[in-house]
Amino acid sequence: MEKVFASIITIGDELLIGQVIDTNSAWMAQELNKVGISIKHRLAVGDVREDIWQALDEESKHASLILITGGLGPTADDITKPLLCDYFGGKMITDQPTLDHIKTIFERVFKRPMGERNAKQAEVPDTCTVLPNEKGTAPGMLFKKDGKIFISLPGVPHEMKWIMTNKVIPIIPDLFQTGFIEHRTLLTAGIGESSLADLVQDIEEALPLHIKLAYLPNYGMVRMRLTGFGSDKSNLQKEVDAQFSLFKERVKEFLVIDEDLPLELVVGRLLKERDQTLATAESCTGGNIARMITSHAGASAYYKGSVVSYDNSVKQKVLHITDETLQTAGAVSEATVQQMAKSVLELMQTDYAIAVSGIMGPEGGTNEKPVGMVWVAVANKDRVQTKLFNFRFDRARNIELTSNNALNLLRIFIIETS
After folding, report:
1. 31: Cα within 13 Å, side-chain hemisphere
2. 138: which of 145, 154, 329, 383 fits an S-S bond (Cβ 3.0–4.6 Å)?
3. Tens-place pLDDT, residues 122-132
């Protein structure tokens, strides 16, 4: 069975200039992958008729399914719908169920009559199948041309996701004879991408053609993703699992987790399983570790809070770092992070603590303490463990590297002290 490929086209000048970050295509790709659709291309196109037309022509050469998001709003810069009408050789008609839906939204939600501009959102090319949008006013549209399927969706993320989940994904089996795609992911730390590749080279080279390995490095960690494609789901799962076991055994010294989870959730799971809690004292990361942890629902079960002691006065007044320590050892020192960890542990009454202090750059470094120098401490009531890191990158990357390495140090500390 051959793979079915899809291309995703996102439309809008705001995407090209970086004013809006495209999260739609990433989400769509993940959902399509779950039902056996492989992604050929993802591309962003501005609000230019000729460019959109060319993108449709070009992507239909490579993919059987072309998904388009954006350009379906009620304003003049939303040009997707009239373009699609011309592209598929139709004429505009009013879809009565969509018009009734829009009227209801304005009467019940906005408490005012529907305007003429909004009523035009119920107009669709007569060559399309309407995909109702219960979360907004712009419907989705499905077209067929030369054996290819084109689906146009709103650019508003929650509207697009509702139509994809409820109207598009359910009809994929009717539109295509897809195979099955299986992914397995493991997360490693403490080894670089090239060294990791050397470590597993013989296993990777022996992989069957329908199973591939990808390396995904990110801020001091490397994900290894094994992907298999096949027509028999049960057999494919067994094959991928068998190969995955070989990789897990080979990299066990560096293995963080054999699931596709971010490090902060791995740490959160360890704490939750043990009914334990964490607090952080952050200087150079400015609260980034706290942000990472609290970006996930349920973090309140194991995370109490942070002291962002960016200035020395906060280190002294809140975390009670002694003047002697700051004067003799300095803010970026082993002694300081040790005291920070102990103090926040007591202040927040938690089981564990992380403390970080360093020089993120691009200024502030000296010969003795260069940019990228970071001290990290992790602690419980019985023990404090410290580690010195020396990063060499820009400020943003140094902050992310510090955060990830601090969380990984805590992960190991929890396992060793439990």
Report:
1. 20
2. 154
3. 999 999 999 99
Reported pTM: 0.82
Confidence of residue 34 (pLDDT cuts 50, 70, 90): very high
Q: What is the pLDDT of residues 277-303, one digit of tens each?
A: 999 999 999 999 999 999 999 999 999
Instruction: Report the pLDDT value the prediction gives residue 69, as an integer from 0 to 100.
Output: 96
- For residue 303, how far is the Cα from the chain centroid? 22
DSSP 120: G
pLDDT(242) > 90: yes
Residue 320 to residue 330: CA distance in whole angstroms: 14
DSSP 232-285: -HHHHHHHHHHHHHHHHHHTGGGEEESSS--HHHHHHHHHHHTT--EEEEESTT
What architecture is domain 4-175?
3-Layer(aba) Sandwich (3.40)
pLDDT at residue 75 is higher than 90: no
**Separation in Å, CA 38 to CA 3, 199, 208:** 7, 29, 18
Superfamily in which the 263-417 domain is placed by CATH: CinA-like (3.90.950.20)
Contact 43, 9 (CB under 8 A): yes
d(CA 384, CA 370): 25
Which candidate, 336, 316, 319, 323, places its Cα nearest to that of 384? 336
The domain made up of 180-257 is a member of CATH 3.30.70.2860? yes
* CA 106/CA 136 separation, integer angstroms: 11
Please give the Cα distance from 295 to 289 (Å, whole number): 10
In three-state form (DSSP H/G/I as H, E/B as E, the rest C), the secondary structure along 331-354 is CCCHHHHHHHHHHHHHHHCCCEEE
**So where are the chain's domains?**
4-175, 180-257, 263-417
Does pLDDT of 76 surpass 80? no
What is the model's pLDDT at position 71?
87
Per CATH, 180-257 and 263-417 having the same topology is answered no
> Nearest-CA neighbor of 357 among 340, 378, 342?
340
Q: Distance between CA 228 and CA 230 in Å, rounded?
A: 7
Q: Is the pLDDT of residue 65 over 90?
A: yes
Residue 404: C-alpha distances to residues 174, 260, 267, 364 (Å): 44, 16, 11, 22
